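Z., the sequence and structure:
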Amino acid sequence: QVQLVESGGGLVQSGGSLGLSCAASGPIVRINAMGWYRQAPGKQRELVATIINGGSTNYADSVKGRFTISRDNAKNTVLLQMNSLKPDDTAVYYCNADITGFDFRGMAYWGKGTLVTVSS
């Protein structure tokens, strides 16, 4: 069974930095895309950043210039480096991946989430 496991959340002061990591494991033939989403209290889940095969990236306007997404293909891992954090960045951050399994079918998978809290 494919699993995504996030790590790296925590508490940081406004203006600080934090890095998130997400590792995919299981019966994986190919990871087509990976990304990060977040959900703040009382709000809908929203896209933060995505990265596809070939390295093309996409960012939410609210994080452009502050967050950087990257992949380590050898380790089936996606990273999110978050700089200049603001209280509005406080949310549960979820890893997402579009993965082709041994049945050669693509499916979307989600991690359980990691909490990022930015204090003012």
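The chain has no helices and eleven strands. The radius of gyration is 14 Å.

Let me know what you think.
H.
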